[in-house]
Amino acid sequence: MSRLAAKGLEVGYGSERGARRVLHGLDVAIPDGVMTVIVGPNACGKSTLLRTLARMLPASAGTVVVDGRPTADYGPKELARVLGLLPQSPTAPDGMTVADLVAKGRYPHQSLLRQWSRRDEEAVAAAMQAADVAALAQRPVDELSGGQRQRVWLAMALAQETPLLLLDEPTTYLDIAHQLEVLELARRLAREGRTVVAVLHELHLAFRYADHLVVMSEGRIVAEGEPSAIVTEQLMADVYDLPCRIIPDPLTGTPLVLPLVGTVGHPGATTA
Amino acid sequence: MTTHVLIRVGERSVRFRRRVAWVLLALAAAAVVLAGIGLMLGDYGISPGQVLAALTGGGDDRLAAYFVREVRLPRVVTALVVGAALGVAGSLFQNVTGNPLGSPDIIGFTTGAATGALVQIIVLGSDTGSVAIGAVLGGLGTALVVHLLTRPHGLTGQRLVLVGIGVGATLTAVDKLLVVRASLVTAQTAAQWLAGSLNAVLWPRATVVLVAVALLIGAAFALARPLQLLTLGDDTARAVGVPAQWVRTLAVLVAVGLVSVATAATGPIAFVALAAPQVSRRLAGTPTSGVAGPALTGAVLVLGSDLLAQRLLAPTELAVGVVTGALGGVYLIGLLALEWRRR
Question: Which tens digit of pLDDT belongs to each residue from B182-228?
């Protein structure tokens, strides 16, 4: 059984009447100890799913179960010791140092009278090491480059030492080299035994890094499994309305999507 | 990590930055020195030796002992406690709103407490005890109104500041109306109270304020760490297990309590809640303000201002609110200019 699973999830925004359903009775079981990547077109509900799994959004029906217990039964700190979330584009106050920010990840393990144990110190040092930000420890977060900053936020989530780690579009606004840095780190964490779930936009990277791929469309999961087993030209056409060729990536063998739009002779293309 | 001081006793531990520790020590020392001066100065001059003797129960100058213990000490204690209350309230509000202008004196809560007290003084014609109740009710009522007006968005950001300024302006008009409609004698009492003054504070009032503020600041300490995490945004805070909305509501209630108690004790003392958290943050070099720093800064500001108010035009005593108002006006202009330049 998966440590993280959901059954019959219904999530909507807005008031009772005229509410917009975003997830429609969705079932999902996240495989343990591997990297799961969720993809899908804009507004398909992938971030909503991730945030509902992390209990950031309330589900109007259905349950999210962590280690056999509904998350609704967990205390706030209790859940934060098992499940971590890196939200979309987080911000730190001006002048806060990297070391201070990463240390905040220890909050669920601390209390008013136990503010800083040796265990906290070790966890923060290990997290900064793993995310390769130890050298930046005394720098203010707002002075770092986008890639460094994202690694710092990852380090904060790592300091939380949760077996489950959810990443909401961790590569948005990063250039390709920094995207790869973040994904390499995420994969390394999965290899070390954590369960990692990431929402990604870049299909080429998603297929390369996913051990388990979840494809969503209009609030439902339409395909799930190993990328090379499930990604087909038909699936891309159905989900993204995108005519394409799919070839194996010459370096990794994972699926590579080549859109037909923009090629010579394709109907509707701007031909040179 | 050599930048931090760590105190660890068995399982228990507290941690703070080295520079913060020094700043706190310096502020505490300043408070002690000012308190000493406060006990010495007055129309009846008392030497440091006599002050010490009076405080420790010795000494043969019974008049000096009386002035120190029964007249000046309650005033000094109230100044420190009210200053601490205002500083902490300001820090809580600024953390909740994420805005240095989101202080109770800007967003109308101090005015609300004053309105509550004025209703007690003028309309109900009551004594000092129930003035306090009026101030607390006024403060909470204002918080409720502002909360309802900003409701879909919660107590955050620019909207809160703008709504608060509007509510504050309306309440100022109400205050003026109340004073105009009052009889000459009550109007005089009300005007005196409105200026914010520590004149004639004796032990009974000082003790009540001390106990109430101590309890509320204790609560503020408990809220400080989760509140700091809210400065990283609600999502991040909730991801590490902070019940964001709950913490924010409690912080507002504690802050309104502090402002109301302080206002009830002395009348509105302007600008301390606005300035103390920012001054202490700059001194300590930290990105956000906590509890201990603003408390000590507020205490030093109010006590220092009160000494100025007492001695500047002696033997005529000014109201402490006049001095903090003058100092704070300069500070507010500086703050606005700074914010403007950053845009």
Answer: 888 888 878 877 888 888 788 888 898 999 999 999 999 999 999 98
Q: What is the ipTM of this complex?
A: 0.88
Chain B's closest residue to A84, CA to CA, is B239
Which pTM was predicted? 0.86
Q: Which residues of B touch A78 (CB under 8 A)?
A: 241
* CB pair distance less than 8 Å for A91 and B233: yes
Q: What is the pLDDT of residues B128-185, one digit of tens each?
A: 667 778 888 898 899 888 888 887 766 666 777 888 889 999 999 998 888 888 888 8
CA dist list (Å): B94 to A97, B80, B156: 20, 21, 10
DSSP string of A149-205?
A: HHHHHHHHHHHT--SEEEEESTTTT--HHHHHHHHHHHHHHHHTT-EEEEE-S-HHH
Q: How far apart are CA A141 and CA A137, in angstroms?
A: 9
Residues in A whose CB is inside 8 Å of some CB of B read 54, 56, 75-81, 84-88, 90-96, 99-101, 104-105, 107-108, 110, 112-117, 121, 138, 156-157, 160
